[in-house]
Design a protein that fits this description.
Length: 187
């Protein structure tokens, strides 16, 4: 019996010591050291510039303006209302909308886009009909009406604007590539 009580006391002492060590260690934990590679492996930088303060750093999204400076926002791009369909900029891109959609109501009760683009009305309005993929559910089963997951058109389709191209793009659709190859073979 005496051995049993000694074991219990020893266990309590160990637990209390561990708790105290944990509490003390938490308060005095040193900052983690970040290992830096030796100077010989770092590339040489030929710069005599002074370090830049955090307020004067450049943010690429802000068009070269310092982060701590207020700049004028860029002008809003104008919506092209020409009804001329643009080529796609990348494979599987949803077609862009070649007309203004200001004041179009698209909510759970109404979808103004379907007035012209539904399969029943597309011929009357000379509008491209909604793709058959919009009538398929997630299990590739065809539905009688537009799939609920494809109902909110401007979730994928955007209006065409006169905005300046920010990133160069040399994408060619398959029709262009095939016609170029046929032209090369003909020569």
């Amino acid at each position: 019996m005496r051995d049993k009580s000694l074991i219990v006391i020893a266990a309590l002492v160990v637990l209390v010591a561990a708790a105290i060590g944990f509490a003390v260690g938490r308060k005095s934990t040193p900052e983690p050291q970040v290992a830096t590679p030796p100077a010989a492996t770092q590339p040489a930088v030929a710069s005599t510039a002074e370090p830049v303060s955090a307020g004067d750093q450049i943010d690429g999204i802000r068009r070269g303006a310092a982060v701590n400076r207020e700049i004028a926002p860029p002008l809003m791009a104008r919506v092209e209302n020409t009804d001329i369909k643009r080529n796609r900029a990348y494979p599987m891109q949803p077609p862009t909308i070649p007309h203004s959609i200001d004041n179009y109501q698209i909510d759970k009760n109404s979808n103004r886009c379907l007035l012209c683009h539904s399969r029943a009305n597309a011929d009357k309005f000379q509008a491209p009909p909604v793709s058959v993929t919009h009538y398929m559910d997630r299990n590739d089963q065809f539905l009688a009406t537009i799939s609920p997951r494809r109902y909110f058109c401007n979730q994928c389709h955007v209006v065409q604007t006169d905005a300046k191209t920010l990133v160069a793009n040399n994408f060619k659709d398959i029709d262009t590539i095939l016609s170029e190859e046929n032209a090369k073979k003909a020569n």
